[in-house]
């Protein structure tokens, strides 16, 4: 018996999770090898195997990228860019191809990167002027027989047929391409006063190999685009193709058709938006009209004849007059009551009456004072004599009066023992009446 796993995945769940892990883990990568087993079914997709001497990898090139299929065949040595994935229904490990290059293009790519860094350092790629949308007159520099001009014109005709398009035909690959494109740019930028309506340039061509597109990586062409007075849009190759002309241009589009879509708005979309705006405007007008009509009805219902308003105002005036008279009568009544109360209080506080009462109280107080003062003095005199006797009984002066004396040294301290003196010491003797200054001649113990 085996323990049942906590979580059991279905085969489709496992394949889906594995696919997500592969796609997130690797992202885009480049792989080099030999093509074998190339198949081109009616769906337009391409399927083949990329191998080396030790392993092989299944590859899928979908229809949107299948125009690259003409660039390689069985036995070719190529470099692929794509993402690693899994075909979930069969669990097949495969590579979804985004771009194909012959493996011998390393030198061209290195030259491309060196020139790109040089031009970037010189500021050739600093253009970023906005193109007018839609432009009044568009100058298209491309091949007159290529698929790019057909795609551009078809999209422009469908989206904005009012645009004035002028074609400046040039070869778009080979030795003559660069001089021709540079001359076309110069022609487009000269004598602006002769045709002030022209205001945008489109340089474009269809897809191809790196060698086919190499003319658009030319240094002179990049500088000519940079110095163009009119803003330039570049749309060379497919989405994965990037050239120096794209970097030097003001705006880059991934394909010729995408360039046409960026240059002009879609008249059908504008028409739809205009119709939507008209419908919203009509709805808003109806709603506003309904609201104002309702408001007018409400105001009309509130509007009354001036005579009715006068009658109402007269009634209100009479009511206010009655209330005013009642309030004035009430206020007079309250004032009379307050006056009577104050008069009563004033009579109670008559000064003559208060003076008479004060005189009576003063006379009674004088009589009580005459009666109680002699008696109080006698009592106090007796208490004073008694206290004097008590004080005389305990006073040392009384003792001194009986013949005693108090001896004090020069510091004023009382001499209580003979040992506290010394022969020849001067003392002060305090008698009952007066003082004596004495000198110690001899001391006795008892």
UniProtKB/TrEMBL annotation:
Say what the protein does.
Answer: Bidirectionally degrades single-stranded DNA into large acid-insoluble oligonucleotides, which are then degraded further into small acid-soluble oligonucleotides.
Q: Which NCBIfam families match?
A: xseA
Cellular component GO terms held in the UniProt record: cytoplasm; exodeoxyribonuclease VII complex
Which EC numbers characterise this protein's activity in its record? 3.1.11.6
Instruction: List, alphabetically, the Pfam families matched.
Output: Exonuc_VII_L, tRNA_anti_2
Q: Where in the cell is the protein located?
A: Cytoplasm
Please give the name of this protein.
Answer: Exodeoxyribonuclease 7 large subunit
Q: Which InterPro entries match?
A: Exonuc_VII_L, Exonuc_VII_lsu_C, OB-fold_nuc-bd_dom
Q: Which organism is it from?
A: Modicisalibacter muralis
PANTHER family the record matches: EXODEOXYRIBONUCLEASE 7 LARGE SUBUNIT
What family does this belong to?
Belongs to the XseA family.
Q: According to the entry, what is the taxonomic lineage of the organism?
A: Bacteria, Pseudomonadati, Pseudomonadota, Gammaproteobacteria, Oceanospirillales
Q: Which residues does the UniProt record annotate as the domain OB-fold nucleic acid binding?
A: 9-100
For the keyword Aminoacyl-tRNA synthetase, the answer is: no
Assembly, in brief, is: Heterooligomer composed of large and small subunits.
Query: Coiled-coil regions in this chain?
Result: 267-337
Q: Which reactions is this enzyme annotated as catalysing?
A: Exonucleolytic cleavage in either 5'- to 3'- or 3'- to 5'-direction to yield nucleoside 5'-phosphates
Keywords (A to Z) from UniProt: Coiled coil, Cytoplasm, Exonuclease, Hydrolase, Nuclease
The record, for HAMAP family, names: Exonuc_7_L
Q: What are the BP-aspect GO terms?
A: DNA catabolic process
Question: Where is this protein primarily located?
Answer: cytoplasm
> So which domain of life are we looking at?
Bacteria
A GO MF term: exodeoxyribonuclease VII activity
Cite the Exonuclease VII large subunit C-terminal domain residue spans from the record.
127-438
């Amino acid at each position: 018996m085996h323990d049942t796993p906590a979580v059991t995945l279905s085969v489709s769940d496992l394949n889906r999770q594995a696919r997500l892990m592969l796609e997130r883990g690797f992202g885009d990568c480049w792989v080099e090898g030999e093509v074998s087993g190339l198949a081109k079914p009616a769906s337009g997709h391409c399927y083949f195997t990329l191998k080396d001497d030790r392993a092989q990898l299944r590859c899928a090139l979908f229809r949107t990228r299948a125009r690259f299929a003409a660039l390689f065949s069985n036995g070719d040595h190529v470099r692929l860019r794509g993402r690693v994935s899994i075909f979930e229904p069969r669990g097949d490990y495969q590579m979804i191809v985004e771009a194909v290059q012959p493996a011998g293009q390393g030198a061209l790519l290195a030259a491309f990167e060196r020139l790109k860094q040089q031009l970037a350092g010189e500021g050739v790629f600093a253009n970023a002027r906005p193109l007018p949308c839609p432009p009044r007159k568009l100058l298209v520099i491309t091949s007159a027989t290529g698929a790019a001009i057909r795609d551009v014109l078809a999209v422009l005709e469908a989206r904005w047929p009012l645009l004035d398009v002028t074609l400046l035909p040039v070869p778009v690959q080979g030795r003559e391409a660069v001089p021709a494109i540079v001359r076309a740019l110069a022609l487009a930028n000269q004598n602006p006063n002769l045709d002030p309506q022209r205001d945008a340039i489109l340089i474009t061509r269809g897809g191809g190999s790196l060698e086919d597109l190499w003319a658009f990586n030319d240094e002179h062409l990049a500088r000519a685009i940079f110095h163009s007075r009119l803003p330039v849009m570049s749309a060379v190759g497919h989405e994965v193709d990037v050239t120096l002309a794209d970097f030097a241009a003001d705006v880059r589009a991934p394909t010729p058709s995408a360039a046409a879509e960026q240059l002009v708005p879609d008249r059908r979309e504008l028409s739809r938006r205009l119709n939507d705006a008209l419908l919203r405007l009509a709805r808003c007008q109806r709603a506003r009209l309904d609201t104002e009509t309702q408001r007018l009805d409400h105001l009309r219902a509130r509007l009354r004849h001036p005579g009715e308003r006068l009658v109402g105002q007269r009634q209100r005036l009479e009511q206010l007059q009655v209330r005013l008279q009642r309030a004035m009568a009430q206020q007079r009544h309250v004032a009379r009551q307050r006056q009577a109360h104050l008069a009563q209080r004033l009579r109670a506080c008559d000064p003559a009456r208060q003076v008479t009462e004060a005189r009576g109280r003063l006379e009674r107080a004088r009589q009580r004072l005459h009666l109680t003062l002699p008696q109080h003095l006698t009592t106090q005199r007796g208490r004073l004599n008694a206290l004097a006797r008590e004080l005389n009984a305990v006073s040392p002066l009384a003792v001194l009066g009986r013949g005693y004396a108090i001896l004090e040294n020069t510091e004023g301290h009382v001499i209580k023992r003979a040992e506290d003196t010394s022969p020849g010491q001067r003392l002060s003797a305090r008698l009952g009446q007066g003082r004596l200054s004495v000198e110690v001649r001899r001391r006795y113990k008892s």
